[in-house]
Design a protein that fits this description.
It is found in: Cell junction, Plasmodesma; Cell membrane. It holds the Pfam family Stress-antifung. This protein has about 290 residues and is of the alpha+beta class. It has helices at about 5-10, 10-35, 50-65, 100-120, 160-175, 200-220, 250-285; strands at about 35-40, 75-80, 90-95, 125-130, 130-135, 150-155, 180-185, 190-195, 225-230, 235-240. The strands form two sheets. It has a five-stranded antiparallel β-sheet with strand order 1-4-5-3-2. A five-stranded antiparallel β-sheet has the order 6-9-10-8-7. A hairpin with a 2-residue loop joins β4 and β5 (about 130-135). The radius of gyration is 25 Å and the shape is globular.
Length: about 290
Amino acid sequence: MHGHGEPLSLSSPPRVVFLILILSQLASCWSSSLNSFIYVGCSQLKYNPGSPYESNVNSVLTSILNSASYANYNNFKISLPGSAADDVVYGLFQCRGDLSGSDCHECVTNALGRLGSTCVGASGGALQLEGCFVRYDNTSFVGAPDKTVVSDKCGPLIADDSDVLTRRDAVLSYLEAGGQFFRVSGSGKVQGVAQCVQDLSATECQDCLSDAIQRLKTQCGSSTWGDMFLAKCYARYSERGYTSKSENDDEVEKTLAIFIGLVAGVAILVVFLSFLSKALDHKGGGK
């Protein structure tokens, strides 16, 4: 006698589906955050297809991908047999200091894909995503300090909120005073993060971050958020955590709110139908 049990069993799969959907959406939001684009640069110099240099480039990028599965930083110098002195390729990758191994590998995989499609045939390229940085070139840059500004952005001005400005200054001061390659700071709603590429020495890192933070204070002044990316380090602050507020954040928030509302509504409907099914079954069984 399975007639009364079947309607109830039908209500179970939708609940599981909705739960999986919610989890997948949250995972997708986290993943897309790590893979958010910051900047890219490609060398004007091109290499010849099928040349030893191309083989060395492919070897460097493969080494970066493989290494990202077990480390959050590494650098390489590749010169395969048959290569000339000017065919040597240098490369490195750096993941954000708080990323897990799997998140680092995913970010680097995404970065290499974007770099390969953007810098086709270029002898050198660098790409920064929210969660990681990759670079390769035919000149030795590994271990060399470089404070060239590669990306700087400032948010809208803070409207007469001295408390936020005070907290912002405190956050940046802490980041500048720290001694680690990866630094995080927070005061109230304001959060900040700073990081150096680990091919720098501790002294070089401190010098790079001091320059980035001073530039950030000067250029972003009274802004609600600011990003300052130099070639070998970066410093950022925001009321939203590590990621600065982008132009489409409001639309994303609206979409997420609508999605959550729909899921909640459907969940309530499923519970109601399940209750109704039980009531009808009970009524039918009583006849």
